[in-house]
């Protein structure tokens, strides 16, 4: 791997000495095994090609570059080479841009009798074809997803907007990786101040490498230490396109299939692409279920433990008897018991993620059936606790994008429930929601359109109205407000 | 620590008023009112709410006359620095004393109903960090949080009222049981449970109300007043002659229908409502204290107000909570005198301010 320090560029003022120059380029690249060079001598003029064979197209190199130049009969000049090259991206570059261009998959061509340098982009590497992303499968609707190749991702978006409004702007982030980051938006729809702010924040990032878009996620927020996710992310071009239509900015990062979007509000994770490809009343029902599920996931174990430890007297008698019967043999305190089951689940989850699929299934069987069942039979854990934790853990994945935050909150509320009871739990909820209300990114309140309450945006909030009723642009964040549907239509 | 209070809109102000007018009047007050004035006791909130809505009308007039000015600056401009300081010191005392009363009431309720073996610290640990966080995050964030909780608050309150109707088992005469003198006496004795509306004067410059949105503020405040009266009547009618034996009104009307169909105990829902109200109400009081403190101690920033508020609160609470008799004496004998602030001082100053403005214009002409 090339380790280039920030600001370290190739400086060779005497490009005419071809062999020496090739040697210096190779030295700069630490004589890496994939650095290739070819030299042709034509009528006393040396023509050198330097490139990285690992990321360039060999066929294009030989057919579009090497052959036309080597078959040329007359004395070669720099202008002749420019004419002979049968490629699209041909640039005349400065000496200090040589290394950068080679690293980006270009062939650098220079002559013994000219100081000019030519860079021909013939970058090629294996890419995945767009397929259904595992993180967001759909029952109805488009199934293609972004890939690791940013060019493919640009194509996927371009296919959805046959409009001159679609803009792609590029910049590089990371002193070592020099990762290409594409900012995409719809001109006339987006608020230009947001685009300006995104560029400012990206340019301000000082990091050695960006290997995935998640690296930029926290760096794009003004409260990076927050537990809350403040940047949208999606693997599906239809979702990103829909967000861009609302005036958001998309950030495509090379080598990452996850495209980021800003500004972000919590509501976006509550929405699912299936909601837009199914009946709107059913979507509303699903959104209610998701909210209830998240509530159960966060509060469930905490409420159970608070009722058991502090407020057993407010439980109906028949529930109280059931719980008392089940827990009287358990040697642990209720808190330790719930914590133990939660951690066991978390361990099983981690194992099933990292193991191959066939082993993961076996682990789930061992964990869920053998450990759970035997634990209950041995009297180490009680059935109600297993049920409560299982429901909470399953409910957590109704909004998978928020699973990390919800898991942390689940443990926090478990601790609060065990130490402060119901009063503490409701206080914790108020504290957390107050905190979420204080979070604003790109001038957008995190919990909009719920608080501050924006009626028009709630047409696609907890309730989902038919598409023809969602006429206006979202008011939760800055955009060029306009009607999305013509009043006459 | 920098505390920034950004402006709030009509909805947020209205919801704050809804919570303020509601919170501590649905727990112990109805029972005490019955004890002092029999079934006619429900006239007390009717009369005192009418006063509070009148104060809100006065605030509206002042806000229209001085759209971007704080109450403190208007006071100072017309009456001088000393008068402003006196009014704000009184407001400061009023907010902290009301916070102590609220804490007292909720503490006794929670300890008796759901925390049988727990001490005072568990309540302070639960309440104070949340309340302080709300105050620190600023008025707008606090308003947004209350806005977020407003739909569940309304749904639960309406649910409690509806369930309360099931508790009415017989027709009870509503009037002519007690004497008018008793009503007057009860009103004066429990006047300290009212008057929270003066919080609006503390945030006068931080309220931005667009044209035509005053109706939102008045509707929400009136809705809270109507709901409190309805709950009071429901409670008195449900328990009739034994109302004085049931100290926690909203909880008691739900207790009548403890086991409801297949759902189970529904009285827990009213408990959740009381908890939510307690947090928000305390946060508003502490905010009111902090903002008043800033006007009294001009050289100290907001964080000192917050620290001072907490210290005074802890000292008074510790002094009163350890002795229940003292707490009752405090609520029924000392605290009514503080009601002079919302029912006499602030309205009087407000009316004079309106009058002075008119006279000033006349002078100019």
Give average pLDDT of chain A, whole number: 87
Order of helices and strands of chain B: HHHHHHHHHHHEEHHHH
The assembly state of the depicted protein chains is heterodimer
List unreliable stretches of 5+ residues of chain B.
Answer: 358-365
CATH topology of chain B: Amino acid/polyamine transporter I
- What's the mean pLDDT score of chain B? 85
The major β-sheet of chain B equals: 2 strands, antiparallel
Which series of helices and strands of chain A comes N to C? Answer: HEEHHEHEEHEEHHEHEEHHHHHHHEE
Largest interface: A-B, 28 and 38 residues
Shape of chain B: globular
Domain module count of chain B: 1
Q: Label the overall shape of chain A.
A: elongated
What does this structure look like?
The complex is a heterodimer of chains A (about 500) and B (about 375). Chain A is of the alpha+beta class. Chain A folds into three domains: about 20-120, no CATH class; about 150-265, no CATH class; about 275-440, no CATH class. Chain A is built from 15 helices and twelve strands. The longest helix of chain A has about 35 residues, at about 405-440. Mean pLDDT of chain A is about 85; it is low at about 1-15. By secondary structure, chain B is an all-alpha fold. Chain B has one domain (about 10-355): Amino acid/polyamine transporter I (Up-down Bundle), CATH 1.20.1740.10. Chain B has a two-stranded antiparallel ribbon with strand order 1-2. The longest helix of chain B is centred in the N-terminal third of the chain and has 33 residues, at about 80-115. Chain B starts with 9 loop residues before the first helix and ends with a helix. Classes of the chains: A alpha+beta (about 500), B mainly alpha (about 375). The interface of A and B includes residues 319, 424, 433 and 435 of A.
